Amino acid sequence: MAAAAARHAKPSCPTLLSLLLLLRMLLVEPAAGACSVDAIYSFGDSIADTGNLLREGPVGFFASIGSYPYGQTLRKPTGRCSDGLLIIDYFAMALNLSLVSPYMDKDADFASGVNFAVAGATALDRAVLLQGGVMMPPASVPLSTQLEWFRSHLNATCASQEDCAKKLAGALFLVGEIGGNDYNYGFFQGIRSIEAMKTYVPQVIKTIMDVAKEVIELGATQIIIPGNFPIGCSPSYLSLFSVSGTGDLDDRGCLKSYNAFAQHHNEQLQAAIDDLRKANTDVTIIYADYYGAFMHLLDHASILGFEEDSLLQACCGAGGGYNFKMNLICGTPGTNVCANPARRVSWDGIHLTQQAYRAIALSLLMEGFAQPADAVQEIWSC
């Protein structure tokens, strides 16, 4: 209890300043020593996609990610669902690696690993979701397909099974964040209640664990499995499901019921990770607490440089209380971009800004929101 209280306690300004200086050393200045990780392999959705969907041909909801204002902080659209960089980019920079190229970029140099994550991806296959009436976008790539891509990549780049195992032993695997879209599609289509969507959680968790088990069998020794963000703080959920007078908003202005759902997923995921650790004592398996890191950002927003009066408003949107309209997603005619994305947490009502992802990367690497913390420090010891 004391450790948990300490973790969520509000840091003093000098402490936070020290952490920010450390982050600058990690994420901006070249690392002095060699890192224990020489490549990153990533599975997931739009939280980690660095250009796969863009090359697949984004349609429908994601059609605008290949054009401005997406990527405006980087001065070009890259297929990232943000104005700039993502958490995976900061992980790579802190390991002194080049940014991890998307698998669909056939001209890329994959020396620093491969990113198989695809915006809109689900943990569950299309057929499983359709059985419950949940529709997936045409371009959606489930986790099973990403795993097939990974196997194909290994077959094309490894001389033997032993060669693959040696190669993967020095790599860091990100299995997720994934599962958020399985729930988003059900909620956004208005066909599934919170209680009904809970029936999908065990299937989503099992799928994530099955991928983790397979990469371990292939030779992975270092794995990060992130939890889900507090969806009740997302402008998209707030715009769609916030009803005055219901008492569902907490002190931060977030939807308690949907955040409780995200916590339910995360609790089930952590229990499964504990079991995976017991069965693989020689493998480092880290839980990345995206939920806690995001809440920490909200609670210390002003110190971190974010506008406190717009924490739950999208930077790019079409107006309304949360600057989000489902039929006018960022980049479509009728939407506008805030003057300074670096002062906002939410980019388009669903995804975060570069500055928010940077702050979350800080919390995961330096402030104990990825556990076990000693394993995190060992990986990022360069």
UniProtKB/TrEMBL annotation:
- Per the record, the domain of life is Eukaryota
Protein keywords: Glycoprotein, Hydrolase, Signal
Q: What family, per the record?
A: Belongs to the 'GDSL' lipolytic enzyme family.
Q: Where is the signal peptide?
A: 1-33
Q: Which organism is it from?
A: Panicum hallii var. hallii
Q: What is this protein called?
A: Esterase
InterPro entries hit by this protein: GDSL, SGNH_hydro_sf, SGNH_plant_lipase-like
Q: Name one GO molecular function term.
A: hydrolase activity, acting on ester bonds
